[in-house]
């Protein structure tokens, strides 16, 4: 870390970063790297959870759009995405769902390489519009996406309602009802 709080830029020689399709043996490595990256406050996705199922489902459903970055055989980054076709629309959308680079390898162009590969895969698949989403406070992520050419950010507002109270009420009600039925 430098004095102004920035991470020192890692020295990575060009050609050292290998981008390849994700393989089944990469699943645990991708999962654990994502756990380190997406657990940080401000990086949690509000409507998708980073868990084993998410990685496995994306890999099984869209393995051609799941790619990883390696440096000297170490997995240092990943990009996981999918495509979306809407009925009554000729447009096919590409969604880059998760993108991550291990902290020690950030600011060395790894995500840029992953993104260029992902972009090429999308074009080959007939995608006409790429979408990404990010928490408003994820400044590195937003800087990155803007640098890659994303524009027109649209703000979404997420509202939440805590239903645990209602669930408890339902459970109590069911339990009471059960006792009454037994007494009869
Ligand atoms: C966002 C992220 C993927 C970028 O990975 P990276 O490999 O460091 O990115 P690159 O080195 O390819 O950066 C390319 C450009 O993006 C921008 N950028 C990347 N990280 C940045 C940061 N921390 N602050 C400001 N701009 C940044 C810069 O313009 C950079 O070019 P430059 O280094 O020549 O200035 C990485 O920070 C990360 O994994 N963050 C946590 C997970 C996340 O937020 N993912 C995105 C949402 S799913």
In short:
By secondary structure, the chain is α+β, with helices and mostly antiparallel strands. The protein is built from five helices and five strands. A five-stranded mixed beta sheet has the order 1-2-3-4-5.
Helix content: 25-40%
- Kindly report the CATH topology: Aminopeptidase
Total of DSSP H or I helical runs spanning 4+ residues: 5
Strand content: 15-25%
> Class in CATH?
Alpha Beta
* Average pLDDT metric: 88
Could you give the distance between the termini?
A: 71 Å
Low-confidence stretches: 1-6
Main β-sheet description: 5 strands, mixed
Total strand segments: 5
Which architecture per CATH? 3-Layer(aba) Sandwich
Shape: globular
User: Which strand order spans the largest sheet, edge to edge or round the barrel?
Assistant: 1-2-3-4-5
Named once each, the bound ligands are: coenzyme A
The CATH superfamily is known as Gcn5-related N-acetyltransferase (GNAT)
Number of domains: 1
């Amino acid at each position: 870390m430098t004095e102004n709080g920035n991470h020192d830029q890692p020295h990575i020689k060009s050609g050292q970063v290998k981008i390849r399709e994700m393989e089944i043996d990469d699943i645990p490595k991708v999962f654990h790297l994502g756990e380190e990256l997406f657990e940080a406050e401000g990086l949690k996705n509000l409507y998708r959870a980073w868990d084993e199922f998410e990685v496995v489902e994306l890999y099984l459903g869209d393995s051609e759009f799941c790619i990883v970055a390696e440096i000297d055989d170490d997995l240092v980054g990943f990009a996981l995405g999918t495509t979306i076709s809407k009925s009554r629309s000729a447009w096919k959308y590409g969604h880059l769902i998760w993108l991550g680079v291990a902290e020690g390898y950030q600011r060395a162009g790894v995500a840029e390489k992953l993104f260029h590969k992902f972009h090429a895969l999308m074009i080959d698949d007939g995608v006409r519009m790429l979408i990404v989403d990010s928490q408003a406070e994820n400044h590195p992520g937003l800087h990155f996406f803007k640098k890659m050419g994303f524009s027109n950010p649209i703000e979404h507002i997420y509202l939440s309602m805590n239903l645990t109270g209602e669930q408890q009420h339902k459970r109590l009600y069911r339990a009471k009802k059960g006792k009454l039925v037994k007494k009869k």
